[in-house]
Amino acid sequence: MSRLEQCFEELKAANKKALVPFVTAGDPSAKFTLTCMHEMVKAGANIIELGVPFSDPMADGPVIQKASERALEAGMSLKGVIEIVRLFRETDQSTPVILMGYLNPIEFMGYETFADKAAQAGVDGVLTVDIPPEESADLLKAYDKHDIAPIFLLSPTSNETRIKKIAAVAKGYIYYVSLKGVTGAGHLELNDVQTKLTQIKQHTSLPVVIGFGVKNAEIAANIAKIGDGVVVGSALINCITHHSDDEEQAQQAISTMLSEMRTAMDATTQQ
Amino acid sequence: MPTSNQSKQSAVKNYDLPDENGHFGPYGGLFVAETLMESIEELNAAYAKYMQDPEFLAELDADLQDYVGRPSPIYHAERLSRETGGAQIYLKREDLNHTGAHKINNTIGQALLAKRMGKTRIIAETGAGQHGVATATVAARLGLECVVYMGAEDIQRQSPNVYRMRLLGATVVPVTSGSQTLKDALNEALRDWVTNIDNTYYIIGTVAGPHPYPAMVRDFQTIIGREAREQMLAKTGALPDALVACVGGGSNAIGLFHPFIGDDGVAIYGVEAAGLGVETGKHSAPLCAGKPGVLHGNRTYLMADENGEIIETHSISAGLDYPGVGPEHSWLKDIGRAEYVNIKDDEALAAFHQLTRVEGIIPALESSHAVAYATKLAKTMDKDKAILVCLSGRGDKDIFTVAKIEGIEL
Q: Which of A129, A223, B84, B141 has its CA at 20 to 30 Å from residue B100's CA atom?
């Protein structure tokens, strides 16, 4: 059983939902990210999404754009992100780690080389924002060979045909983008999310985690009621931005936010 | 990908690209987030439908004639040819179009499409401002809301066009992320589109972006080459021996080249911006000095570092200052049907002055790159040969840039 399957199985047995924090690797430094990953697990995270910084993050709002810029300035690269995961795995063999980013760095490294290196370092899945299933055949072959789960997005505008297309190739979990727009945007309508989720669940047995617009513990708890997991990204990166001169305080703020979300989510699902 | 000469030849003879998924060989395609897929599918369906619709095409033709001023003439630049020595240089005068460049051929087509699709809001990205002006112009005419994204740095160096867009009623949004130029404006426009997909149509200004944009923008721009073919035959009794056009994203170039792809005797040259020189790294010449990757929805030649991060480009001309290029150009390069060359800032500037001085035509700095290469090429050819240059835009917008470089205060 893969780490991801194991993770969702254990959560289900405990009647809990996955808390999935996203941070951009290397923001503000590789050292911070590594420490942060371990601290997030302590604060209740079940799966970690690690953003691979890219010069042109077309699907991200200003918060993650800035995080990408800071990470690139600090010298982070796809190679560097894989190294962070390798170091993380030295002491944590159970928490699944997903890389999330854009295609071009993977194109430049080469699909096979990337899949091989990532798998060896202990990466469990990869979400590449700008590659739909239609263009994915070669990439999926490389992932399959190295047991890396291809994670795909679904959105409020995904129709039945697209849901089926993605359900046919996705592994690990499906990431449902809860609102129209870029990361960190707007506010989400729970009823709409619920309706779409029911539709998605008709076509897949994979867990569906929900992200975009999760700003606080209350929203996280509400989402935990309907999805299999909650992704929180921009809100955590805001903690880094607000404490840019003190990494320890930034870390503390992230841990506090995740702990609050964990408590609120568990209170909802275990009533 | 064809490797033998034979398969390269058959690729040219039976040229019918892109395929239904938008691929030109390994290039092009549809690399966007799931959040945009529905809009793209909607656009694809509308494009396929209306490009076959006689009523739509008739409206487009009428607009191109009465509003844009087509057909644009072909002009024999006799004094330039004589001064250069060698082949005869002809100019396809896209600079005489309404708004002063070829860009409006495309914006008029896409705006009519947007209207048919029931969209009420138009967005666009712009580098030099020519595409932004062409978009704001058609939006004004059709009564559509218009928002143009423009890099903060480009806003500084193209202020006359910014003012023109505002006069036309468009909102110009400065983009301060990344390198603050065209690529970042494109990123920002994509973010707007994904946020406002219900009522918004995104008019991409060049033959890049996700499918169907490279094919659609090309189809609207091939009016350049279709007219030029007939005009050259009427004027000289033969097809030209060579075509020359500048390539940033490459829309004027593909517009000129495409109708000639099957004509063996016509050599094709795309001219990239070498900036301070390709060897300095400060240039915008992905076909000459980049490698294939994926950006802005398609696979194509790119300027990126070894980690795949897009690097900053340089050119005297804001319209060529882009790290990617239309995927069809990448394919034409690989199969050897077109040759891609480059011209430096100072060579383009010299051509800008030369054409102005001997022909009384002030070319855009973008088009000056094509003129510069054409004069180089002409010198290597006989007097009875003909080179057709796409004079893609007029240079009024650039007089401030040129004056500043030369230390003249206006």
A: B84
